Amino acid sequence: MVLLSLIATHSDVDLETVARLSAGAPKVPSSLLENGPAVAGAVVLATCNRFEVYCEARSEADVEAARSAAIAEISRHSGLDEDLVSRSFITNTGQDVAKHLFAVGAGLDSAVVGEREIAGQVRRALIEAQDKGTASGTLTRLFQTASRTAKDVGALTALGKRGLSIVSVALELATDLSADADWRKKSVVVFGTGAYAGATMALLKERGCTDISVYSSSGRAESFTASRGGTALDRESLGDAVARADVVIGCSGSENQVSAEDIRRVRAESPQPLVIIDLALTHDFDPAVRELDGVDLITLESVRLAAPAEQAESLQQANRIVTDAAQAFSEAQLSRELDSAIVALRRHTLGVLDKELEKVRAQHGCTGAAEEVEFAMRRMVKALLHVPAVRARELAASGQQEDYIRGLEAIYGLTVDQPREKAADKPNDDSTDTAQSA
Description:
Layout: E1 2-9, H1 15-22, H2 28-35, E2 39-47, E3 50-57, H3 63-78, H4 82-88, E4 90-93, H5 95-105, H6 117-132, H7 137-156, H8 166-177, E5 187-191, H9 195-206, E6 211-215, H10 221-228, E7 231-233, H11 235-244, E8 247-250, H12 260-266, E9 274-278, E10 295-299, H13 300-306, H14 312-364, H15 368-397, H16 401-412
Parallel strand pairs: 5-6, 5-8, 6-7, 8-9, 9-10
Antiparallel strand pairs: 1-3, 1-4, 2-3
Helix pairs in contact: 2-3, 5-7, 5-14, 6-7, 7-14, 8-13, 14-15, 14-16
């Protein structure tokens, strides 16, 4: 089994393209397993500035077929041309798959370096794949290890102590744009009820904001505010709330985009300025709202440009943790692949031994001499198996496990079965909300 990943992020692709690629993202893993015989598992990580597909190919020879199948399914669900889809992704294989995901989960590849929201999104991506039955055992271990690595980075470096996130940086920008920096006096409207909206609510409350209204086009505002506070809005009350708001925050990713004309109309009689924070990948607000008098617009690009730089020492430490974790994961995977080869060799050798011992017992019976011969032969076989076992680990560490397996097949005529995957436990998750996330 071989891991590969297709990566499209804010670092290499414009956010509009990322949003278009992400259309239909929840359907990609299941359809990929149905229509891609080379694929044994798939997990999708889709956030506000990245779309990543993690796959397990059945063998090295199937990697290109697995990639082609993933490109075809993304094209089918997004409606984009396959050539455009292919050019939009960077493909990782081998240890690079783990290293990238571990860096992502630790917040090292985020627009706001060190942000903690992404760790929850990585965890939820695995849970969703497990619920749909698309996460193979290897992918489950990969994502679980990513979550543990993110915790290590948060606990062992200064990155976890700053508490930065895309939302927190956006709120700081909004503070700078406001005549009054006191959030206790502000009226805020939040679009969306996913995990991202929940994080926004929590940060607003930390700043002392109590006048928070929530709107959801899916009708979930009532249940959302029942557990988190705030006032639920419906279509009838939304206009009045936006008219008197100081800040409006979009994190729903709804298809019903608010136009500049909508804002101009409902704000026609509003004397105070308005700050709109649009953190949805597909834009909750028409970018033209920035042209309206008295309206400032903060976007994901604004956040990226305003995000503070991290100290070099903290980043170096975090990168070392990620690199070491990725190497350990890859070595463990390679060793795991050879476990079945070692078992096959041991089974073959012990089978030969048992046949020879049967001959000894048939000739000499259960005598003391026969027992001594058996003891000596078992010690000899154990010594003979030691070197092949050690060499298996050494070759696995250097990525030569296929050479070892081919050698066994050529010399002994053994058929090495792939290890059977056991169902892995789901990681704990504090929220079942679906996030249009950072």
